[in-house]
Specification:
Blueprint lengths: L9 E3 L2 E3 L6 E5 L7 H13 L4 E5 L3 H13 L4 E4 L4 H9 L4 E3 L8 H13 L4 E6 L5 H4 L5 H18 L5 E6 L3 H14 L5 E2 L7 H17 L5 E2 L7 H14 L8 E4 L10 H11 L8 E5 L14 E5 L3 E6 L2 E7 H15 L2
Parallel strand pairs: 3-4, 3-10, 4-5, 5-6, 6-7, 7-8, 9-10, 11-12, 12-13
Antiparallel strand pairs: 1-2, 13-14, 14-15
Helix pairs in contact: 1-2, 2-3, 3-4, 6-7, 7-8, 8-9
């Protein structure tokens, strides 16, 4: 059982972050925010996969104005991603955004910061301070200390700006493309503040490499009880980010949404097309939301015995297979009929 770090709880829309709330999974749209129809379509697709928060790029006033129409129909809370222009933050708040991602020190004069913070307070809008290891303030970059320490100094600087304006609905992230730097930055900040932490390894890469980096970085921190919300940043579809996020959380027992899929590696004992079988089962149950453990095993040796903890499973034979429940074989079928029978059984018994 993982003991979670105690953090202050905030709320974004109807989603609680920190405290005893479940660790939430979020992503970011890759559409032009000004295109309301396309952006909403992607948000609905993300929500169907379980995404609980979505961030929008706000590059200009037109994007900030589009927030109003997107908010009316969005099934999940929206976070505005703001860089440098405080007026965009104000416009997004006026148009109903649920939260902001910005660094107060980067939006100009103190009077501008006060305008944003005052409006955020009035409208109960949390602010995520987002530190990126590749874009720190120049005076911090020059310091002769490790990068993760520079990142923490930057975060504390921005936090102080908000606190000096009597604002405490804060969430913090410290992302680097280097996994170890990311881990050390979060470990350090976790000891210094009580605000909830948003985890991510930034610029993690394309699908395979990005998932590995994210699983190592986020998984290490989550296993230590650090982290209140996550994004797996991939050079891929935002849908894949959400899938990967839930997989990481499920692997640590931190979320139980959807299928926990188990399959064994191939070996010389396997007499069935295990790779295709496992992929087909996983794909067909991709949108199944019941928290079931499903196993696809290559042979009778690793079948019902090693996977007896599974709710349902398949064990391969010689061009045939066995369907089992909780370790008990209930059907023997030729290979070509296995998947259809297996999926039908799961769906009938878990309506």
């Amino acid at each position: 059982m993982i003991e979670r770090r105690k953090s202050k709880q905030i709320q974004i829309g109807d989603v609680k972050i920190g405290g005893d709330a479940l660790i939430s999974v979020q992503s970011m749209t890759n559409t032009d925010t000004r295109d309301v129809k396309s952006t909403l379509k992607q948000i609905y697709n993300l929500a169907e996969m379980g995404c609980e928060l979505v961030r929008l790029a706000i590059l200009n006033p037109e994007a900030a104005d589009a927030v109003k129409d997107i908010k009316k129909k969005s099934p999940i809370p929206l976070i505005a991603d703001i860089h440098f222009d405080y007026r965009l933050a104000i416009r997004c708040i006026e148009n109903g955004i649920d939260a902001l991602r910005l660094n107060p020190g980067n939006i100009g004069k103190e009077e501008n910061i006060k305008k944003v913070v005052s409006l955020a307070k009035t409208n109960d809008i949390p602010i995520r301070i987002g530190i990126n290891g590749g874009s720190l303030e120049k005076d911090l970059e020059c310091l002769d200390i490790p990068l993760h320490e520079k990142m923490v100094k930057s975060a504390l600087r921005h936090i102080r700006i908000l606190e000096n304006n009597n604002f405490d609905k804060i969430k913090v992230s410290l992302k680097s493309s280097d996994v170890l730097t990311t881990i050390e930055a979060y470990r350090l900040i976790a000891k210094k503040i009580e605000y909830p932490l948003h985890l991510g390894v930034t610029e993690a890469g394309t699908y395979n490499g990005g998932i590995i980096k994210s699983a190592v970085g986020l998984g290490t921190l989550l296993a230590e009880g650090i982290g209140d919300t996550i994004r797996v940043s991939l050079t891929d579809s935002p849908i894949e980010e959400v899938k990967a996020g839930f997989m990481i959380l499920k692997s640590l027992g931190l979320r139980k949404k959807g299928i926990n899929f188990v399959s064994c590696p191939t070996c010389g004992r396997t007499q069935i097309d295990l790779i295709s079988l496992a992929k087909e089962v996983e794909n067909r149950l991709e949108n199944f939301n019941k928290p079931l453990t499903i196993a696809v095993m290559g042979c009778a040796v690793n079948g019902p015995g090693e996977a007896k903890h599974a709710d349902y499973g398949i064990a391969g034979g010689i061009k045939e297979g066995y369907i089992f429940k909780k370790g008990q074989i209930i059907k023997r079928l030729p290979e070509e009929k296995l998947v259809d029978e297996f999926i039908n059984l799961i769906q009938m018994e878990n309506v």
